[in-house]
Amino acid sequence: MTIDTADLKRMFDTIAVAIEADKDRLCQLDGVIGDADHGIAMALGFNAVRDALASLDLAATEPTALLNTAAKSFLNAVGASSGPLYATAFMRGAAAVKGKAALADADLIALFQAMAQGIKDRGKAEPGEKTMVDAWQPAAEAAAAANVAGKALAESLGAALAAAESGAEATKEMIAAKGRSSRLGERSLGHIDPGAASAVTVIGAIRKSLS
Ligand code: ADP
Ligand code: MG
Ligand code: MG
């Protein structure tokens, strides 16, 4: 399968719809261990991306340029911590596919891995610190492993989604060590991290749109 800029645009549209539908739940999760704005922040970001991509001439746009446009619009729209984290993800993704007119399965997996690494680098969070990294990193590892094992893209992204889901679930047992919820210390125990929860929604939408 080859993925072009029209497919990437459709992917961002699918993410925006999924996040919009999940907005209230994400705000509720953030309300428990944060400041209750995570759903609003993510919806603002992905709706801004959707609007920005709608005005691109897709036939004259390479994947790198589309992803950089996504990064810029997400960053400009979001004041919360998730703004620079996802903007960096898209910027790193853009760099990972530089010069390519269309993406093969392996390129998409590389893009996905670059996004996860970008979030990790930007937030300086390690796995186990109760952040979106606890969903993104195992997802990227699972996708890469499936791809190396010769699986088709749909299956690799399915593996990524399953890993993200268990990663997000596991944040319940973690004490927050990064971001706003780290101020709660042990009181953050027992609650899912909102950024890990939204990562599952984002990854689920990526899988849905590309398979
Ligand atoms: P804010 O805390 O500024 O209101 P959001 O509510 O949009 O931002 O996002 C909160 C989420 O951001 C957290 O649930 C966590 O997953 C993620 N996060 C916060 N700080 C970091 C970090 N340093 N590294 C990775 N993810 C982080
Ligand atoms: Mg918040
Ligand atoms: Mg906030």
UniProtKB/TrEMBL annotation:
A Pfam family it matches: Dak2
Claim: NAD is one of the keywords in the record: no
Gene Ontology, cellular component aspect: cytosol
DhaL domain mapped to chain residues: 6-208
Record flagged with keyword Cytoplasm: no
Gene Ontology BP annotations: glycerol catabolic process
GO MF terms held by the record: glycerone kinase activity
Matching NCBIfam families: dha_L_ycgS
Protein name, as recorded: Dihydroxyacetone kinase subunit L
Organism field: Rhizobium loti
